[in-house]
Amino acid sequence: MAEFTAADLRGSRFEHTDLTGSEFRAVDLSGARFRAVDLSGVTMRGVELADVDIRGEIEHLTINGVDVGPLIQAELDRRHPDRARMRPTDPAGFREAWAVLERLWAGTVERAGRLRPELLHESVDGEWSFIETLRHLAFATDSWVGRAILGDPAPWDPLDLPWDEMPDTPGVPRDRAARPSLDVVLALRRDRMSTVRQVIEGLTPESLAGHTEPVEGAGWPRPRRYPVRECLLTVLNEEWEHRLYAERDLAVLEARASGSG
């Protein structure tokens, strides 16, 4: 166990580091950046929290005695009326949710297509570029639909892009240097979205309530049984959240293109 007292660690980088159970007392974390971190079970007392931006899955977060999780969920549903449709419970609900995503993504892609091609490879604030976002969604579909539900042990396209923190896995591509055109990525995207559509169109109450069969071999998700509904909810969540990220970043790119950002 390391102990740092009165130490100057400004600018330090901790990556794939286990800080479980660590204690921070009279520590200055101003300006710190946290990405893909697990803060489950964290207790904070006497903190000063101002001008903080938190994005992620938030449940059972109590601030000054108030569980703010439900408040956040309700406000997000108010801002985005279609968001509640991303929590379907029956086949008809999944078909409705997917139709909503197809409609929303069509508008987002049209918006992106009005930008210069090179801007679609630009990162905004360290996030994925628009092209990388589409590549990641292909990976999510291949993983949770192609592999988990349809049983293909290696469904990935060479352009698929896992999340950054995923360990290198034999057979799973992660080419961050690739620069495919929007048309090339959209062809892959249309194919994968068509696959999801076919699976959802074929859902019955029985199949939705069922489980997948384990798929052997390296890859993601890990070889075990998964509830079909959870697999499809994962895809809906990925599609919904990454479109919002893309819309946010497209606004910045549009400002750059016009010279106002």
From TrEMBL:
Residues 101-245 form the DinB-like domain. It comes from the Bacteria. It holds the Pfam family DinB_2. This is Pentapeptide repeat-containing protein. It comes from Micromonospora chaiyaphumensis.
